[in-house]
Amino acid sequence: MLRIEAKGLTKEFKSYRSRAGLSGAFRDLFNREYKLMRAVDGVDLQVGEGEMVGYIGENGAGKSTTIKMLTGILMPTSGYLRVNGMDPHRERETFVNTIGVVFGQRSQLWWDIAVQESFALLKKVYRLSDEQYKDHMEHVIDVLDIEELLTKPVRKLSLGQRMRCELAAALIHNPPLLFLDEPTIGLDVLVKLKIRDFLKEINQKYGTTILLTTHDLSDIEALCSRVVMLDEGKVIYDGGLHNLRTTWGNQKTVHVEFAAEVALDELQVATAGLSLTWHKESDMEYRAVFVEDAVQVSDLLSRIIARYEVKDVSIEAISTEEIVRKIYEEGYAYA
Length: 335
Description:
Layout: E1 2-17, H1 21-30, E2 33-48, E3 52-57, H2 63-70, E4 78-83, H3 92-95, E5 99-103, H4 115-125, H5 130-144, H6 159-170, E6 177-181, H7 189-206, E7 209-213, H8 217-223, E8 226-231, E9 234-240, H9 241-248, E10 251-258, H10 264-270, E11 277-280, E12 285-291, H11 297-307, E13 310-317, H12 320-330
Parallel strand pairs: 3-7, 3-8, 5-6, 6-7
Antiparallel strand pairs: 1-2, 1-4, 8-9, 10-12, 10-13, 11-12
């Protein structure tokens, strides 16, 4: 079953454009000029039951606008959209009972009352029985380790504590589909790990489908096997994280620290014939960058060690962040 099915999903906004000068301002009083901006441009997206998908892109790429259409907040300008088998905007009252949403910078908890009181109100909103609430929420509260936070007002919680409570609130009705927009923004490493472990568990235990939007690519690497990348409102990559690395991440870097100063031209002579590029970081530190299959690391190191005294060597594969940056710089990566 498809949890999300979008074809040609498009959202346009009209923005006011002011003319320059006093005469332009006077003309604007009677005849305004507008510019049509396409925030999401013909997006095709299918997400199956139980998938965990990373939805990424630079600021202004159209991620948040897409999420708002998928959750029924915005109505698409054109295109076909079904989420959990429903039109999110037209069937909003029924639809909202089938999704959970967490926005990293917005709260669904009441600021001045205890967390447990917010949970009680949400329980009534979703018309859950005491038994339904207890069976599900005991597990959620235990795994997120928020038992001690339930009696505290939301305003007295740290950011990490509040985000764990926000996650629990979004899952009170055990929805089959969860939207996460920057859920770990500003959180420390330990809280991030706790949230990631929790998301993996609910995905395995309940088959919860998760669409994750984030700028923290370590979240994507830890949770998602599939990535959808957006740029200027269009999908430029939709595929597996492994395939993304295989296709775009086949570079390696060897960082070498010498015991004494080494000239760049001497180093280039020593490695002549090898398909690599040297980058100077200091008189004693250099980086060799090359395509993984083009150069044998053992060959490179044997040439260097034969000529120079080496203090330290480290070998690094290209990071996911570097892969994404490379894709945006080169423009298109659809698999």
